[in-house]
Design brief:
- α8 crosses α11 and α16 packs antiparallel against α17.
- The protein folds into two domains: 287 residues, Glycogen Phosphorylase B (Rossmann fold), CATH 3.40.50.2000; 192 residues, Rossmann fold (3-Layer(aba) Sandwich).
- The longest helix has 16 residues.
- With 510 residues, it is α/β, with parallel strands linked by helices.
- It is 35% helix and 18% strand.
- It binds adenosine-5'-diphosphate (ADP).
- Adenosine-5'-diphosphate binds next to α1, β13, β14, α11 and α12.
Length: 510
């Protein structure tokens, strides 16, 4: 028998994605599958998920969940062997755009009850109260699945180990405490010793309180969240549960983000054929309707356009940068807070032919951006892991990024000297002022001016190992520690067994 893991989340590519969580869930599931673990992804039944999953079949009707009756479907992830379970409810069924907010950007009023239903349904599966096989480990991700460890406890389910992975502590799922009974939360837990946080009930705190292990997606972020500066009001409880915290870095899907094979870029390249990157640059400039200038450095921004991602700082810094470097061109891809989006559009009018903006969410453009740019500007006030700069490094695009969270672990700063430090693959900067960002861009330009130094940094960046190889082993070790006595040997066997490799989904998926 293989060990079973139920991976519960709100996003997984290619079915639904708003950020890095979606990439991580699907890639982690693939890596666990390769370790011979029977992993299923459990997601809300959004329209895109119901339409995208293959071989879907209804397996159960759950008629007493918070929010009303629901259907459980089981199928497979597209072009994959990984099983996916979808919970179709009245509220998830109509979320055809962003899964958390409506067209005006306002949070759906029934988010609490909808995600509580997802958690209750997961616990039904754990309790073997559906036709689906109960897992040995339930792995909850972010606040959306945060009630699961609490519900396991209140339902007295002891034989299943629970993990909560925190991908972003800023999103906590905090709601009026009066909702507790309608969400199926026992009244004796609706207090500060339970899941109350500053007068509200908190899904994320529920996970932190009751999960057997809390995993955090980089070493540096795991240290930071224990401080008031980065703890978002949860540092106290996280310190209290410090013994249960495990730092496990994310990985990236090295096959999906691979300049040698990526079907979404204009020309393939490797470290040895880096000159082909130029075709990708021309292609990117054309997409943004900017004139081609072979010697102009191209700076890219590609992320959610939010306060977290320092959109305000970039808006303040870019005019000075563009004025200082008259040949420089800038492309911006992102979506987020309206005022910042408008700010970038305004900048594109002020610098025609030099700054191009695409407001939207487009996977293809994200690949083209990483492949075609020379540098990626990635300011951020906090960063649990930071997939985006890693994607850029894979394509020899040098990140200029904030020295926070996972970026500290993955980017090696070039330093301030005239030659890059050993192993340097990017530029890291401290601070949240425009001047801090401008100074970092200045340092990058100094390196860019010396083609040998730049090439060295590009090669360092492209040769980094950001695969799931080590992270997945750590996950399985953690599962093994918290699994029941009967399941432990199954995880131990998975750890020592030879990997069963999945077909190259990256290419098949396109
Ligand atoms: P976060 O999860 O905080 O948004 P990450 O950098 O870890 O940050 O992950 C962001 C993911 O979302 C990456 O896969 C990135 O390519 C993608 N992404 C962000 N904005 C866009 C966009 N506008 N279009 C396409 N992909 C985007």
């Amino acid at each position: 028998m293989r060990p079973r893991v139920l991976l519960v989340a709100s996003e997984a590519i290619p079915l639904v994605k708003t950020g890095g969580l979606a990439d991580v869930i699907t890639a982690l599931a693939g890596a666990l599958h390769e370790k011979n673990i029977e992993v299923s992804i459990f997601l809300p039944g959004y329209p895109s998920a119901l339409a995208g999953a293959t071989a879907l079949a209804k397996v159960a009707v759950l008629d007493d969940l918070p929010g009303g009756p629901a259907c459980l479907y089981r199928g497979r992830m597209p072009d994959s062997k990984i099983p996916v379970i979808l919970l179709e409810t009245e509220s998830f069924r109509v979320r055809s755009g962003n899964p958390y907010v409506d067209a005006n950007g306002d949070e759906y009023p029934d988010n609490a009850v909808s995600f509580a239903a997802l958690c209750h349904a997961a616990v039904r599966i754990c309790a073997a109260r559906t036709p689906l096989a109960a897992p040995h480990i339930v792995h909850a991700n972010d606040w959306h699945a945060g009630l699961i460890p609490l519900l396991l406890r209140s339902n007295d389910i002891k034989q299943i180990g629970s993990v909560l992975t925190i991908h972003n502590l800023a999103f906590q799922g905090n709601y009026p405490i009066e909702l507790g009974p309608s969400l199926g939360i026992p009244a004796d837990l609706l207090n500060p010793d339970g899941i109350e946080l500053w007068g509200k009930l908190s899904f994320l705190k529920a996970g932190i309180q009751y999960a057997d292990r809390i995993s955090i997606v980089s070493e540096s972020y795991a240290r930071e969240v224990l401080t008031p500066q980065f703890g978002n009001g949860l540092d106290g409880i996280l310190n209290h549960r410090k013994q249960a915290i495990v730092a496990i870095s994310n990985g990236i899907d090295m096959r999906l983000w691979n300049p040698a094979k990526d079907p979404l870029i204009a020309r393939h390249f490797t470290q040895r054929t880096l000159r082909n990157k130029n075709f990708c640059k021309q292609d990117l400039l054309a997409m943004f309707k900017l004139p081609a200038d072979p010697f102009a450095p191209l700076l890219a921004l590609g992320s959610r356009i939010t306060h977290q991602k320092m959109a305000d700082v970039a808006l303040a810094a870019l005019p000075a940068i563009l004025d200082k470097y008259p040949r420089m061109q800038v492309v911006v891809l992102g979506r987020g807070e309206r005022a910042y989006e408008d700010g970038f559009i305004e900048l594109s009018r002020r610098y025609p032919g030099r700054l191009g903006v695409h407001i939207g969410y487009e996977e293809r453009l994200a690949h083209a951006l990483h492949a075609g740019a020379d540098m990626l500007l990635h300011g951020t006030r906090f960063e649990p892991y930071g997939l985006t700069p890693i994607y850029s490094m894979r394509y020899g695009t040098i990140p200029i990024a904030s020295r926070v969270g996972g970026l500290i672990d993955t980017i090696i700063d070039a330093g301030t000297g005239s030659t890059p430090c050993k192993g340097a693959n990017g530029i890291l900067f401290d601070g949240e002022q425009a001047a801090d960002m401008i100074a970092a861009v200045d340092r990058a330009f100094k390196m860019f001016g010396n083609s040998d130094h730049w090439l060295t940094m590009q090669r360092n960046a492209m040769s980094g190992d950001f695969s799931w190889h080590d992270p997945v082993r750590k996950y399985v070790e953690m599962y093994s520690e918290i699994a029941s006595a009967a399941a432990k040997p199954l995880f131990a066997a998975a750890l020592s067994a030879k990997s069963c490799r999945l077909p190259d989904l990256a290419v098949a998926r396109r």
